[in-house]
Amino acid sequence: MSLPVLELFRTVYLIRAVEEKIRSVYPEDEMKTPVHLSVGAEAIEAGVCSALHQDDQVYGTYRTHGLYLAMGGDLRQFFAELLGRGTGVARGRAGSMHLACPGTGFVMSSAIVGTILPVALGAAFAAVRRATGAVATVFFGDGATEEGVFWETLNMAALHSLPVLFVCEDNGMAIHIPRQHRQSYEIPQAPRLFGIEVASATGTDVVQVHALAAAMLARIREQRRPGFLHLTCHRYLEHVGINEDYDAGYRRREDYEEWYANDPVDTARRRLRAAGESEARIAALVKEVDASIEAAFAEASADPVPGEPIPRRKAVP
């Protein structure tokens, strides 16, 4: 059993389990921040981020949790931020929609649709000027392709041969409006107009996503040209909040049965089984992740709110 596949499963499961923890505690109203959950898209975030180099940078939208966790952000600080505690990654002032962890490479996120694209473009331009060899990877939804800045960013990235990896997480919905009521074009057509190479796939298999991302990143570094990943997924939950869309009439209940058949967590688990990993090892890993989430949440819940003294902790030797 190769370690990377096991680690990919761990990241996919971690994101799902953290999101389910949020769903379970959110009604208690201790989290005052709005939450945009990534349930259904875990394989995209885990697969792409696992293919990045140490100096690469990640930029995201308001759907931040999966990126933060896939980039290795601290779990206790994550929950502390969502709970508004002073020990959060932004001292409890960013909440969910503006989450970031620059020390891991997750530089920033933006809550305004499409606005993160030119920021990543600027980072790629800086990488070229400084000759760092880094790639700026930017995640966005299919709704962002309807913004003028999307087309302008594609043009500038191609025109100046900038090392940008565009990752479109296409769940077919912009808030609650399905694609057929919004777009008269196919998303992969857009980057091809500018001579940008595109790879498309269903984004529910973390192993496949990782392989696509690794290959595209290698081409970006070798050819010094931008690349584009178009990955489809299913948004299990409402645009913002913890409920399923069919409760509000935006989705059909029958759709969920089809989606669950290709669920990212189950697909990753099937990958492990096919590779010969034992059920006992998988169960042990799941138990370990669950325990880390419960411990981190309990510790974060006991942390002080901003303005209260933050207890001094021992320095790591």
Mind explaining what this structure looks like?
- Strands 2-1-3-4-8-7 form a six-stranded parallel β-sheet, with helices on both faces. Strands 5-6 form a two-stranded antiparallel sheet.
- The protein has helices at 3-25, 42-49, 65-70, 75-82, 116-130, 148-159, 189-193, 206-223, 253-260, 264-274, 279-301; strands at residues 57-60, 106-109, 136-141, 164-170, 173-174, 177-178, 197-202, 227-232.
- It is globular and about 50 Å long.
- The protein is built from eleven helices and eight strands.
- α8 links the parallel β7 and β8.
- α1 (3-25) packs across α2, α1 (3-25) runs antiparallel to α10 (264-274) and α2 packs across α8.
- The longest helix is centred in the N-terminal third of the chain and has 23 residues, at 3-25.
- By secondary structure, it is an alpha/beta fold.
- It has one domain (3-301): Thiamin diphosphate (ThDP)-binding fold, Pyr/PP domains (Rossmann fold), CATH 3.40.50.
